Amino acid sequence: MDVLRDVHAALKPGGSFVFEQGGAGNVAEVHTALIGALVAHGVPLAEAQEASPWFFPSEAWMRTALNDVGFEVEKLEIEYRPTRLAESDGQGSGGLEGWVRLMGAAFLERVSPEKRDVVVKWVVGVLESVEKRHEDGSWWIGYVRLRGVARKRE
User: Fold this and answer.
1) Which residues span the domain enclosing 39?
2) What is the pLDDT of residues 85-100, one digit of tens each?
3) How much is the pTM?
């Protein structure tokens, strides 16, 4: 909410706030696998869940939040957009492994440095049947995008 308040404060009356961000359900499979991997490697469930730095609001949550800080919502939409990952370089960059190392870093900090490679490989292994297209070997993540246009009330 602080970000929305700050955006509202920065705009002139009638000014537009146009945004796109992760929406409810964004990267759900990876999120679930990361939590599962932590639990499988000795992290208590509550701590594994708390490791997540992500908040992906629903349309309803965002509409209420925007209205509460003084915006009039002109448009809100959510779109499921599977996104192909860059190819892996075989050394931990690119592909799902690279994505997990970069975007899942807050989760990986919950295990010792010695366990991080094992946890990453566990996540990739669990997700292979869901995120990998076997016809061409490409990896895809289920992004959900929340887009909106809101105008600061006059």
Assistant:
1) 20-56+79-148
2) 988 777 666 789 999 9
3) 0.87
